UniProtKB/TrEMBL annotation:
It comes from the Eukaryota. The lineage of its organism: Eukaryota, Metazoa, Chordata, Craniata, Vertebrata. One of its GO terms (biological process) is cardiolipin biosynthetic process. It catalyses: a CDP-1,2-diacyl-sn-glycerol + a 1,2-diacyl-sn-glycero-3-phospho-(1'-sn-glycerol) = a cardiolipin + CMP + H(+). Its main location: mitochondrion. It holds the Pfam family CDP-OH_P_transf. GO terms for molecular function: cardiolipin synthase (CMP-forming); CDP-diacylglycerol-glycerol-3-phosphate 3-phosphatidyltransferase activity. Belongs to the CDP-alcohol phosphatidyltransferase class-I family. This is Cardiolipin synthase (CMP-forming). InterPro entries: CDP-alcohol_PTase-I, CDP-OH_P_trans, CDP-OH_PTrfase_TM_dom, Phosphatidylglycerol_P_synth. Its EC number is 2.7.8.41.
Length: 191
């Protein structure tokens, strides 16, 4: 339910940013972040609340939210186009790799219902350390960019430094998945 809330908040956030209603957008972003933290806290502390569907929806909700935020913040001229292109390209490549791994690890006969059934887990992607750092840096950039027009620092050199840091960690994260490839995928046996 919390992941679905985050997915539902994503287009609302995009609309608010495009309409330049940054004060409300900042509050909605904080709410989306709270749902993510609460979702993770519940999954870690109450095993009965953990589900295969939830573990599939959580990263999907994060990708949808981040993608919409980057596109809308770029539209509002708060994040440069090349940086958004780099981030979304990396995510598309990762998603394509996950689909490929899913296909390769699915036992025959491979059916669409089996392929898209989140309860039928065949592999788990283990994020690299730099990927975790990249996620944190991307979220910090989104928060800082969203707050920039509210607190009047949109032209700050610190924001530009954060753009460069985000570009570096995004490239390093993409390279780490390419370089470590098979080591980041754990195939689940017995399926």
């Amino acid at each position: 339910m919390l992941s679905m809330t985050r997915i539902g908040l994503a287009p609302v956030l995009g609309y608010l940013i495009i309409e330049e209603d940054f004060n409300i957008a900042l509050g909605v972003f904080a709410l989306a972040g709270l749902t993510d933290l609460l979702d993770g806290f519940i999954a870690r502390n109450w095993a009965s609340q953990k589900s295969a569907l939830g573990s599939a929806l959580d990263p999907l909700a994060d990708k949808i939210l981040i993608s919409i935020l980057y596109v809308s913040l770029t539209y509002a001229d708060l994040i440069p186009v090349p940086l958004t292109y780099m981030i979304i390209s990396r995510d598309v490549m990762l998603i394509a790799a996950v689909f490929y791994v899913r296909y390769r690890t699915l036992p025959t006969p491979r059916t669409l219902s089996k392929y898209f059934n989140p309860c039928y887990a065949t592999a788990r992607l283990k994020p690299t350390f730099i990927s975790k750092v990249n996620t944190a840096v991307q979220l910090i950039l989104v928060a800082a960019s969203l707050a920039a027009p509210v607190f009047n620092y949109a032209d700050s050199i610190y924001l530009q430094i954060l753009w460069c840091l985000t570009a570096f960690t995004t490239a390093a994260s993409a390279y780490s998945y390419y370089h470590y490839g098979r080591k980041t995928v754990q195939v689940i046996k017995g399926r």
